[in-house]
Predict the structure of Small ribosomal subunit biogenesis GTPase RsgA.
Amino acid sequence: MEKTKGIVVFQGQDISKIKQEDGSIIKGRVSGKFRQQVLQPSDYPVVGDEVLGYLADENQMIIEAITPRKSFLQRKVAGNRQDEQGIAANVSTVFITTSANQDFNLSRLERFTTIVWDSGATPVLVLTKTDLVSESELEVLVKELETYFYGISVCVTNCFTPVNEDLKSYLKKGDIIAFIGSSGVGKSTLLNQLLEDDIQATKEIREDDARGKHTTTSRHLFTLPNGAMVIDTPGMREIGLGTMSSMAFDHQYQVIYDLAKSCRFSDCRHQSEPGCQVKEAIETGNLAEHVFKSYLKMERELAFLKAKEERKNRKTR
């Protein structure tokens, strides 16, 4: 049988579509041997994966293997289970989208950035629907994002103005970029602007809560005119961190860890200890107090993750 390879450009439940090297799109399904070797749900192909296999016929590829992933964006499945749900693979940059209305939620964005750091990709915050606020209100929102998410780029956009050049700078030929965010924050609208076509359906904002109606129900990979590839994903509200690595938190709070290195005591809790550089940074305005409070709230989850990783490491020795 003829061997072939391609990239997963669509994935929804048990259905996938593969883009071959010649640009043609065919259906894809995993082989029986592949299913037997799978250890967890996240081992199955997701959008962005490069897959190897053979052609069962001219319209279908049997997937036998996935090439090593450069990055893997995932989240915990809903409920109490600890399984990972794959979102996208081989992504270099993730646009975390939030709209400039009631959907704006720093705690939720914090969880989005954590799963992006964990994936191996780079997060970029994209504030959409900026036409809904005044210029002064927009300045406050951007400043809040830049302060809360130290070191993460912030881009602004709306459907009435050209796409921000800063945002376009991440769209390089051959790179894969993913959009994540809550339902109806404008991911599909922004994608249509980048594609210069109304590929993804969009809906008007609901009057009762100012949120856009959810439109994307499966994951798609699209190729932009310049050769960059973008993945649109369904909206997410529940972002469990049970499957994340502790290193993802290290990225999120690097500014606090850097300050803590200069504390007088190596075991400083940053509460009332003398010589605490974290508390001093808060008092002088060099560290936002709400960032530190968020760090304290997440410490319990971080301790849980580190304990789980230690148990796993002991079992594999």
Observations:
- The CA atoms of residues 27 and 85 lie 22 Å apart.
- The two ends are 41 Å apart (CA to CA).
- The first strand starts at residue 3 and ends at 12.
